[in-house]
Amino acid sequence: MTSPKKLLRSARWFSDTGVRGFAHRQRLQQVGYRREEFMDKPVVAIINTWSDISPCHQHLRDRAEAVKRGVWAAGGFPLELPALSLGEVMVKPTTMMYRNLLAMEAEELLRSHPVDGAVLLGGCDKTGPGLVMGALSMNLPAIFCPAGFMASGQHKGQRVGAGTHTRTFWDDYRAKKITESEMVHLETVMTRSIGTCNTVGTATTMTSIIDAMGLSLPGASSIPAVDGGHPRMASECGSRIVQMIREDRTPRSFLTPGSIQNAAVAYLALGGSTNAAVHLVAMARRAGFSFGLDDLEKLARKIPVLANVFPAGRYLMDDFFFAGGLHALLSEVKEHLDLSATSCTGQTMGDLCKDAKAVDTDVIRAQNNPISKIPGLAVLRGNLAPDGCVIKPSAASAELMKHTGPALVFDSMAELMAKIDAPELDVTANTVLVLRSAGPQGAPGMPEWGALPIPKKLLEAGIRDMVRISDARMSGTHGGTCVLHVAPESHVGGPLALVRTGDTVSLDVAARSLTLHVSDEELVERKKAWTPPPPAYERGYGSMFLQHIQQANDGCDFDFLAKHAANPEPPIF
Fold it and tell me: Taking the complete model, does pTM exceed 0.90, yes or no?
């Protein structure tokens, strides 16, 4: 049997016979560890995105302790390493601006420290893809431990989904159907516990995708944050990573194109967040696989939305958990899965779906009874989005799936917010709202501004949806007829930059088209007159972001991180 010194990466630090090895061992003993606790043991990094200002991750300190229990029990040595928390809502201009920074941090934490494998603690929207992207690039044994979703809320007997009902109630408040005191009360009852959003928002979409890829313990993504099974799952992650280190089971040793396909099928059957169209492309490419919007579109035409959960359905994620969870859902679409793809546990997707069955067939539907006859994602192209854009038909209005109307253009979110409620705004229900300067470079960071607010005077008239187009993203908890991720974005001179108020725009989801009814010759003349806006940042991380960020159709990774050139191990002298 190979000796631990030859097998373990951390042995370069701790088994070195020179002065460097002496110093490394000395420093761990300085803080109270005995030599026997870490010598010749698999060293596990617990990359923890806990912070005081991230309510989704408030419990991850406790979960790190559960992971440590599992690592110790399996004969490993755990070390907790803090990383960017990236809690949604609080981080401005958007957590998306920092997803790649977290990916860089995760990769470099693993590279620069004496660790043999990692447990990745995250869950809130960008932490899942960020941590996984970094781990895929570093390619040490790694397992993702999802934060889990919050407990369900109620208001006047109505079950409330985090995020989904935020916009609903806010529109009712703007339309004077809800009082200010009622809104104050709603602040206290809508989000009731630790954990991520309890709808099929970006967090649950991405943790389910990572689960279906095989990078989590099977089914971990479906466990509520407050359930007793959640810390048990965290402890099991600690035990499993030690075994993965001993097996040298790195992500790239078992991930295949079939793993990415399974992730995409899970995403679409869930009716998941449009944000996944950016993150899944980025993760797949970090794993070394060619994957893009066209691949998602082909699958989306085949995969029905079967999870009857907000915002497309009427239940919440704890209902999904009790109904059977992720693999019960996947068992309903087995013919679209690569059943030979394996997970971090070594089990195949076929093994995991074999006995999985929906307990509640209203929450997890069969294919002959989908919650929507239209797909959970459509990729549109046309002269307004030559590199593609996306819409979530299952959460949009059926009557707007084919629509032509005059554009009302806002050059920035600040302009939109200043004008949208003005009584004199020239807008009708037929108008197509257009927002630009909201993409990867334009905002910057591509914030979740895509669910543009309905003008107040239309809300008061009972209008709750309109066609809205932008180069922004949209929260996965939201719905509406919102065309998103228009590429190339307006800030770099994409056609969205050339739209003028009054231009006619046509959306045709069935034809997968988005058309600006302006002649090619006129667009050429407008492009000549267009002036690139100045950069938002001239120094710091913001400047680096603007210089290297890719467009939405390429996953918004940094160009230099998307490369597959090997990074050398650090010298130890």
Answer: yes
